[in-house]
Design goal:
By secondary structure, this protein is of the alpha/beta class. 37% of the residues lie in helices and 14% in strands.
């Protein structure tokens, strides 16, 4: 596919305009990289920690040191990182089932959680599948106050009280003494709402801790290393095929938080009596270490790509969230394309710009855990990786594509240009 000179010129203009934003992204990446290196050095990481364990995996020093490194970098008391956690949804399920008991209430204070948690909670799915609802755990939800502001100022510039319904949270905690977990989703998921910043999340956490002894759980997926620190929650949960895996870890997830929460979740992950004492690493340790080492830099590549896409597509009349010059608290870029045809064309272009499976044509399909058909462009080295260049969207109004990732800015820029070229060639967008 030839690239139009008009598109090349637009990309060059975008890069020039974003030089200041790119410099700030690099500054944050440098600070977070120092944090990672200092944690590695404090744990005296050596070649020996990469040796695989088998069987029960008792006394695996590589696994135990990695747990402590995650806790150190994320500012928590404890953590566990395991290659056998298959996704962010799986990690979140471990966390929720680890902390909640029959009769308890799960209170979501940032609106409906990500689509794949519907079946876990029992919002959807078959009765008897083993959801939280099946185990007698109640669910309550408090929606965000607003997602857009009349003064057109970005959401990140507002205090949490402009976004989070603190009055309803207070009322819910007063009326239901069984609230055991307060759930905060950092990223937007498949919703048209702002990603919460670390400062906004910490404001919510401080508020609820004055009212309740409930665990505060943050779905941290897509947000790691985008800011100078992570939220001050009782439990942070994420996936290694997203940010902290650095595009190198081939599977896995993590839970990081206070010691009590981690102990409870460890018993759920394995079994009571063993907790986190066992678990063979089977040769996966090196890539988890290497991925975490690379993560701040790789996240920076993804953030630059997101800013580039926002600039280019907003200049062509598409609504982009966040805007190109906005600070970011996750790697996801929303582009309001306005039709299913444009969604599909964008994803086809991203796929064509990939190093892997560039010849594949993505099509909408029914994906497990989602209520609508979903189209995904994912020419990745690791299946399902969201830190690699990818794009996906539910086929439903208002037809928003969720674009993220990129292991190198150079490749990801090429992908953005390919996506625009696909739309241009199909006469779905005009480039002057």
């Amino acid at each position: 596919m030839l690239i139009s000179d008009k598109i090349k010129k637009l990309a060059a203009e975008a890069e020039a305009a974003l030089s200041g934003r790119f410099a700030e992204i690099d500054r944050v990446s440098g600070i977070r990289t120092e944090q990672v290196i200092e944690a590695f050095q404090a744990e005296r990481v050596s070649e020996a920690v990469f040796m695989p364990s088998t069987g029960y995996g008792y006394d695996d020093q590589g696994r135990e040191k990695l747990d402590r490194i995650y806790a150190s970098v994320f500012g928590t008391e404890a953590a566990f990182v395991r290659h056998s956690i298959l996704s962010g949804t799986h990690a979140l399920t471990i966390g929720l089932f680890g902390l909640l008991r029959p009769g308890d209430t799960l209170l979501a204070v940032t609106g409906k959680p990500y689509d794949t948690l519907d079946s876990v909670i029992g919002i959807s799915g078959k009765c008897g599948d083993g959801s939280l609802r099946d185990f007698g755990i109640n669910y309550r939800q408090i929606d965000l106050l607003k997602t857009e502001f009349p003064d057109e100022s970005p959401a990140y510039a507002h205090p949490a009280s402009d976004i989070i319904d603190f009055d309803s949270i207070k009322a819910a905690l007063a009326s239901d003494k069984n609230v055991k977990v307060i759930f905060i989703q950092r990223s937007k998921g498949y919703l048209d709402r702002p990603t919460l910043t670390v400062s906004q999340i910490n404001e919510v956490i401080s508020f609820v801790r004055e009212l309740s002894g409930a665990f505060v759980v943050v779905d941290n997926c897509y947000g790691e290393f985008t800011e100078l620190s992570e939220p001050n929650a009782d439990l942070l949960i994420g996936s290694l095929i997203k940010n902290p895996g650095g595009g190198i870890a081939e599977s896995g997830g993590y839970l990081a938080g206070n010691r009590k929460a981690i102990e409870l979740c460890g018993c759920r992950f394995s079994c009571p009596g063993i907790g986190l004492e066992g678990g063979a690493t089977l040769g996966t340790t090196r890539n988890m270490y290497k991925g975490f080492f690379m993560a701040p830099h790789i996240v920076a590549q993804a953030l630059k790509t997101a800013s580039l896409a926002a600039y280019i597509f907003s200049s062509l009349g598409c609504r982009a969230e966040p805007s190109a010059d906005s600070p970011r608290s996750d790697i996801i870029q929303l582009l309001h394309l306005g039709s299913a045809e444009k969604l599909c064309a964008f994803c086809r272009g991203i796929q064509k710009g990939s190093a892997v499976d560039s010849f594949v044509t993505p099509e909408p399909y029914a994906m497990p855990g989602y209520s609508d058909q979903v189209i995904m462009a994912a020419g990745a080295f690791t299946q399902g990786s969201s830190i690699e260049l990818s794009a996906d969207a539910p086929i439903r109004p208002p037809y928003v594509v969720y674009f993220q990732g990129g292991l190198t800015y150079e490749h990801s820029k090429f992908g953005v240009i390919k996506a625009l070229q696909e739309l241009y060639d199909e006469k779905l967008i005009t480039v002057v």
